[in-house]
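Researcher: Let's walk through a ligand-bound prediction step by step. First, I give you the protein sequence. Second, the SMILES string for glutathione. Third, you return the three-dimensional complex as structure tokens. Ready?
Model: Ready.
Researcher: Here are steps one and two:
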Amino acid sequence: MAKSDVKVLGSWPSQYVMRARIALNIKSVSYEFLEEKLWESKSELLLKSNPVHKKIPVLIHGDKPICESLIIVQYIDEVWSSGPSILPSDPHERATARFWAAYLDEKWFPSIRSIGMAQGEDARKTAIAQVEEGLVLLEEAFGNCSKGKPFFGGDQIGYLDIAFGCFLAWLRVTEKISGIKLLSEANTPALLNWADRFCSDAAVKDVMPDTEKLAEFGKMVIAKMRGAAPPK
Ligand SMILES: N[C@@H](CCC(=O)N[C@@H](CS)C(=O)NCC(=O)O)C(=O)O
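Model: Step three, the predicted complex:
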């Protein structure tokens, strides 16, 4: 497939956009990356391609848009099925991976956001405790899913690695800005090692944002969110 037949509407700091890019890299699919400047205005192509949520990422395959990062990852796995598998082939393992991915999006990552947005020490401590509790659960899930192998997906990066790993840059930024350690040898040794392996994987390293650069962006986002909402 020619590069121009696959496009990703995205933005470099977006954890969700990273999911689509990692999945395409795993399948060795070339694509055109169209950078959206969400804080300025959304492109006509984005508004047309994702009229319901108006969010990135959007994968455009030929002339067909696919929205929502985890749906995009599953689509990529199904369309380029001759490449390495992303979702587990076993139905129970697949259901388990989807369960944890939903937990990450609906519960765990919102707590990370709350650390940055917290007004007051009590709110901050509550959010940190929620993130830490979640990491203990995820440490156990890693043991169960990986069965002693390097990734949630086994020998190579799979669906849950992508779903969780895309949050690592923001986790590191949160650690840096808040002066706390969320992944540690004492509490989450397996996840600590997994995080290093994930970030240095060939499919990931070029799309994982630099912590310093993302921290600067994060400070700007927090300031804007406390002031005004981004343009629709
Ligand atoms: N559930 C969506 C979330 C996507 C999302 O929140 N994208 C953000 C960028 S990280 C966005 O487009 N924000 C613009 C807006 O909220 O208007 C997914 O997984 O794709």
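Researcher: And what stands out?
Model: The chain has a mean pLDDT of 94. The longest helix spans residues 91-117.
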